[in-house]
Specification:
Length: about 150
């Protein structure tokens, strides 16, 4: 599922940002351009972090930026953005964030398979380090796809 959902156009490496809010806005651009989310989806992600804290910081210097489907998700989508330098999101245990995965789903079930695939990749420290070190979008995508085959 992940293999069909993500291509090199969904990957941005070495994004420079001012702060976590800027990082969310910029990492959302690809999903906005594809029509997977509306601008209000981006604003909702930021508002929820302001209200409840960095709920989508998963660990291992990774944020899975998302919000509820009814806040402007129009189709299943995912993009990957590495940050250079890494950015503080306010997570005591997992800052600074090196990778933002921006994610949209139109309901609570459509994304379960892709999330399962993603979880297996993100739990492997060696794969994560390889993703963080990727110099090209093609290398990043290749690492993701090869990790699914392992």
């Amino acid at each position: 599922m992940l293999e069909e959902l993500v291509n090199t156009e969904d990957i941005e490496l070495g994004l420079q940002t001012n702060d976590w809010e800027d990082a969310i806005r910029k990492s959302s651009r690809r999903l906005l351009e594809k029509g997977a989310i509306e601008q209000r989806y981006v604003e909702s992600m930021i508002d929820v972090v302001k209200e409840t804290g960095p709920y989508f910081v998963l660990g291992n210097h990774i944020a899975l930026a998302h919000t509820r489907p009814e806040n402007g998700a129009t189709k299943l989508g995912m993009s990957f953005t590495t940050l250079n330098p890494p950015i503080e999101f306010g997570s005591e245990n997992f800052d600074p964030i090196k990778l933002i995965i921006t994610f949209s789903a139109t309901d609570s079930k459509a994304h379960l398979l892709v999330m399962s695939e993603l979880a297996s990749i993100l739990s492997d420290e060696e794969i994560l380090e390889e993703l963080f070190r990727s110099k090209t979008e093609e290398a990043f995508l290749s690492t993701l796809i090869n990790a699914l085959d392992e």
